[in-house]
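Memo to structure team: turn this sequence into structure tokens by end of day. - J.P.
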Amino acid sequence: MLRLALVFVLLMSGTAHALPLDVKCRVPGVHDADVIRAVHAVGLSLRVSDKVMLAGFEAGWVESHMNNLACGDRDSLGVFQQRPSMGWGTPEQIMDVSYAARRFFEYAVRVDRPDLSPGLLADAVQRSCCPERYDQALGRAESMLRQAWQGGPEVVGGVVHVVEDGDVWSGGRRLSTSGDFVGRPSVAGLLVYARTARGEVRVVVDGAWRVVASGVGGDPEAVVRPDGTVEVYAVLADGSVNVLGQGWQPLSPPAFATGKPSAIAHPDGSVALYVRSGDKLMASAAGTWRELAAGLDASPEAVLRPDGTVAVHALINGRPHRLTTTWEPLSEARFIDTVSAEPDGAVYARTAEGKVLKVG
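Reply from structure team:
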């Protein structure tokens, strides 16, 4: 107990400054896209509140412009400028963005109070010399959060569909203005589906967006069946795979899958589903799930080739791969979220900076 009390006192007495005072410590003028995604992922894994998440992004901007700095005032390091001498961890630990974010969020949850704004909560963790600067970073923090939610591309017929700054874009044309979309859109014929940060699935019809379902935990997948009808699939917040009918109809038990399903409508009218379960690639045909491969760290993308065979792709360690007898890399470049594949074999992916590139 004495050791824990000492660590608590050290943390409470350690003062963080708004950007490093050491003039030799260069702070980039823009954030690191990989850092914001890492911080965001930790916050989501801990299920922190929107206020706590925002406090983390405000603190990250004020302390380092959301960069993993190897320098700082005195012994301060990392995205949150945490000090080893104040009990935050070893220098190596603090320079691990996920570790640093976890320490920030866990402490923020402990000290949060209803009367604290996100900025004042950030200051309660950081013990800054400049507490007012965190709330002044609100707009920047919200913009970084929207970028952190952006997912991979959906490329259909060479037209790129993406979510950027909370809105859905198609071939460079803006389809929405609400600013609350996240993840990756899905295209089925002339219809575009996308989800919001609140877990709603919406579709745009004649220029207007309407809600078709809610409760999703990942991006929707819409597919056109041979008879012209559209089916929508999604992983819900409980981890179950579902198809949309009169409400969501479960196709798997809870805690089965994460991310975005990939669906293929075959000419005979059957639909095959591919999902990520842990690090495993699972496929469903006629209601039976079977494991096809392992090693996934992102949702799969399956596409029906002109010869009737199915090609499956995924990001592994951020690099695009195609499944043959094993996972074969398509590029050494690193990308985010999911890849998109076309029947002709073209594969597209999105960089952390938001660029969509053809990678295979």
